[in-house]
Amino acid sequence: MMNERVHELLNDQINKEFYSAYLYLDFSNYFKERGLDGFANWYMIQAQEERDHAMLFYQFLQNESKKVTLGAIDKPDKELTSDMDVLLAGLEHEKYVTSLIHNIYAEAYEAKDFRTMQFLDWFVKEQGEEETNANDMITKMELFGSDPKSLYMLNQELAARVYSAPSLVL
Ligand code: MG
């Protein structure tokens, strides 16, 4: 049985994940304008993944016969003034999302809502990977960002990222 608090948090998370997609679309747009198509591609795929996350929360609630209520998605609010700004904002955002997922997990645990906990297990692991990816981007930018040739190579590397559907199937 899902209690109202857990229901509310899961419903809110649909919005948070769509906001994440919107934020990463903004990042992609920033890099597109900079002429760094590889970075733009990387964040475009990131945005697609976030949309998938939103749909997983949506589908989970529907599978549990719980009402879904969609709210307005905020405008991306990070000020993007340099490449490193973008990457740091990405890491900060992922840490925030991790805290949201952990909070829902804690509420589900409290409520002995084992089905929600099992659903969230995938997201707990996913957030670990998201933070690692965001950290790796920062490290690479620190190492290579100031040298145009290296930045070009890094951009090429990021251009190779391809979309794949989430491994979690509901
Ligand atoms: Mg996400």
What would you say about this model in short?
The protein is mainly alpha-helical and 170 residues long. Helix content is 76%, strand content 0%. The radius of gyration is 17 Å and the shape is elongated.
Low-confidence stretches: none
* N- to C-terminal distance: 18 Å
Number of domains: 1
Question: What is the CATH class?
Answer: Mainly Alpha
CATH architecture: Up-down Bundle
SS elements, strand count: 0
Give the percentage of residues in beta strands: under 5%
State the helix count: 5
Radius of gyration: 17 Å
| SSE sequence, one letter per element | HHHHH
Q: Could you give a short account of the major beta sheet?
A: none
Q: Percent range for helical residues? A: over 70%
Which terms summarize this structure?
single chain; 170 residues; mainly alpha; 0% strand; elongated; binds magnesium ion
Write the layout of secondary structure elements.
Blueprint: H1 4-34, H2 37-63, H3 83-110, H4 114-144, H5 148-159
This protein binds magnesium ion.
Structural notes for this entry:
The chain is mainly α and 170 residues long. It has a single domain, classed as Ferritin, core subunit, four-helix bundle (Ferritin, Up-down Bundle), CATH 1.20.1260.10. The protein is built from five helices and no strands. It has helices at 4-34, 37-63, 83-110, 114-144, 148-159. The longest helix has 31 residues, at 4-34. The model has no long low-confidence stretch (mean pLDDT 97).
